[in-house]
Amino acid sequence: CVCVCVCRCVGVRVCTCGPVNLRERAHSLHRVQFIGMLEDHTAGLVYFKGSVYVFNPFRGQECILFHSLQEQPLAQARLDRAVPLLDEPLPVSGTVHSVLNTLACTTATGLASPAYFHVSDATLVANGFLVRKHVGEQRQVTYELLAAPSLEGLREHVLPLLADVLQLIATRGSGTVHRPQLVLDYFEHTAERIARTFTPTAAKMKTMLLKLEPYGGISSKCTHGFPVFYHLPSSDRKE
Questions:
Q1: φ and ψ of 171, to 5 deg
Q2: CA 136, chain centre distance (Å)
Q3: Is the distance from CB of 44 to CB of 202 less than 8 angstroms?
Q4: Which of 82, 86, 47, 16 lies closest to 217, judged by CA?
């Protein structure tokens, strides 16, 4: 039986029964290995490259949720009517139309006229927007907003949010998904709220270690910048 005493840092004891060799557990130098849960079931201990760390599963869950939300497009809802997008100046550079004119379009389906197109930029789509482009007989171009994010907390700020998205495209370029701060704040609050309801188990924490690998592994942080793993100096543990 191997008991790891964490007296000064967390004041509890975790016991993993059976013959355990921590070095065998760390069969890969690049993987964080789960040792066991603390007695109060609010945290765990892990082993990585010769060191033991306290694992905060609530922060780990928050980190995973935050990144998972960023990887998914926002849910969108059709507007009751199309909203014309006027050629207004953006806060830093360009105008609404000058930015939209640079973006790729696809033919709008379900319309007889080939003069209608959907703006297919990844950042617009990922942030829940559907913009239609119309080219008139005199080659004049107009844009309309057909759909916007449907999530509560974002749908009240549709036009300012669209301006932020276009500003990001203007300054950072198209082709890669960019998130405005309002959306990132929404993701942060959502991840934090869901993480509070998380019930840790050994099985869930082992799975979480694998999910954290793309987001920094042992260096992962929660949405507020606090570490998911706390290193235990050798003077604070006994094997």
A1: -90, -30
A2: 40
A3: yes
A4: 47
Q: SS3 for the chain, per residue?
A: CEEEEECCCCCEEEEECCCCCHHHHCCCCCCCEEEEECCCCCCEEEEECCEEEEECHHHHHHHHHHHHHHCCCCCEEEEEEEEECCCCECCCCCEHHHHHCCCCEEECCCCCCCCEEEECCHHHHHCCCEEEEEECCCCCEEEEEEEEECCCCCHHHHHHHHHHHHHHHHHHCCCCCCCCHHHHHHHHHHHHHHHHCCCCCHHHHHHHHHHHHHHCHHHCECCCCCECEEEECHHHCCC
**Look-up: residue for tokens 């260096």?**
219
Q: Say if CB 100 and CB 166 are below 8 A apart.
A: yes
Give whole-number Cα distances, 71 to 66, 177, 196, 235, in Å.
9, 9, 21, 41
Q: Is the pLDDT of residue 132 over 70?
A: yes
pTM, to two decimals: 0.77
CA 212/CA 205 separation, integer angstroms: 10
Dist. CA 44–CA 56, nearest whole Å: 7
pLDDT digits (tens, 9 = 90+) for 196-212: 999 999 999 999 999 99
Length of the chain: 239
Dihedral, CA atoms, 92, 178, 173, 107, nearest 10 degrees?
A: -110
